[in-house]
Amino acid sequence: MPAVVVSNGGDVPEFEGRITIYVILCVIISAFGGLMFGYDIGISGGVTAMDDFLIKFFPKVYEKKQHVHEDNYCKYDNEYLQLFTSSLYIAALVASFVASRACSKLGRKPTMQIASFFFIIGVGLQAGGISVLMIVFGRIILGFGVGFANQAVPLFLSELAPAKMRGALNICFQLFITIGILIAGIINYFTSHIHPYGWRLSLGLAGVPAVILMLGSIAICETPTSLIEQQKLDEGKAILKKIRGTDNVDAEYESIMAACEIARQVKDPFRKLMKPSSRPPLVIAVLLQVFQQFTGINAIMFYSPVLFQTVGFGNNAALLSTVITGLVNVFSTLVSIYTVDKAGRRVLLLEACVQMFITQTVIGLILLIDLKPTGTLKEKEALVVVILVCVYVMGFAWSWGPLGWLIPSETFPLETRTAGFAFAVSSNMLFTFVIAQAFLSMLCHMKAGIFFFFAAWILLMGLFALFLLPETKGVPIDSMADKVWKQHWFWKRYMVDEDDEPIEKIHPHKT
């Protein structure tokens, strides 16, 4: 019999196993899907601040940029420039639902390979772009790659990891996103000095992590859950023994088999998602994506060179400041890897809300008081803004950044896992698109008020995490319904037994 630990108010089976070298290899290779995404987030903001890129594709923006005295907050406000950044996310939104089917029918590993193929094609179109239409089309193809990768990689990591280490291993996806952002910032800093084609080099190097993922995925396995789901039972059990480093996997194997049997009875997982019992993980998954984007993080990551130029830094200094925030992002994500399976998910989310609320508010106050439409901040004030941005990024990087991907990937039952996570990915892409498309216009019209806008959202997020988000650390991925949702003061009302009676009516003694 498996050992038992106490978590979330009930007995939770802890299956035997350890972290093997092979699992670490699988985690690193698959996480390159996150590096692809992060590199694109970081590179697009830097490229759109390069004069050579603007002269070729957005000459009106370049001309407007030369007249800084007109309005600090509005010099980059151009819907086509925003479309270059944001078009990727609409494509990723659509692709996530196709990727959901691919994950179920083909497996997690082939879905990651498809993602790398799309990414390589999109990179070629962008780096070789000769017109706005061509580079936007390239970003749409990249969007399909992002949609497939963001669907497959977190699921792959959550299913591969033992429950006691699932948080740390899954956050490797977010860690590689932050590494990608950092690498992009460093590359942009150097390619901005290469005229007139530095921007092509920046965009073209995005193909490197995609090639690594495509070739490296040959060496990694499919998850046991996916193999068993596809009726490859012997192969699934063999892989489970390999990744756990033990032959004593019968209890976990039976648990996966039971989950797969339930999943096979569900012919339409998207319809199943509309049932009351699916509402808790679905609502949590979607709201986490909405809140993750309305922290304002992508506004800062996409447009940090633009933002730092707005507060008075020159082009090179702005790109260097972006590298600094990128370093903070990476090291703070390492903090999350270390603490998430010890402190838990909710503690990190709540602490970060306080940290991000304070920093966004103070940044807003500094800009409101001292940054007028013309002129710049004093050097010391500009430095304070950079420090506050770093503290803000720090809080996000060990909380809402990685946990926005981790929690949805671990809370859906197998029968709705790929479909439910598709809603999470598509919601993330939708609201990333909204922020990417709207940020420059919002900055132009709201000016310093944009930081108060995001601060208000952070306050709402904190209340959500405090009252509606259950703790999921240490709970096996296929035990969430019994050990998490049926124990929660609010969500238990949606959990029903086979006769469709609410759980609290059948078992009124449960709390």
From TrEMBL:
Spans traversing the lipid bilayer: 19-39, 80-102, 114-134, 140-157, 169-191, 197-221, 282-306, 318-340, 347-371, 383-407, 419-443, 449-469
Residue stretches making up the Major facilitator superfamily (MFS) profile domain: 26-473
Record-linked InterPro entries: MFS_dom (IPR020846), MFS_STP/MST-like_plant (IPR044778), MFS_sugar_transport-like (IPR005828), MFS_trans_sf (IPR036259), STP/PLT_plant (IPR045262), Sugar/inositol_transpt (IPR003663), Sugar_transporter_CS (IPR005829)
GO cellular component, one term: membrane
Keyword terms: Membrane, Sugar transport, Symport, Transmembrane, Transmembrane helix, Transport
Pfam families the UniProt entry points to: Sugar_tr
Record membrane topology: Multi-pass membrane protein
Subcellular location: Membrane
Protein name: Major facilitator superfamily (MFS) profile domain-containing protein
Lineage of the organism: Eukaryota, Viridiplantae, Streptophyta, Embryophyta, Tracheophyta
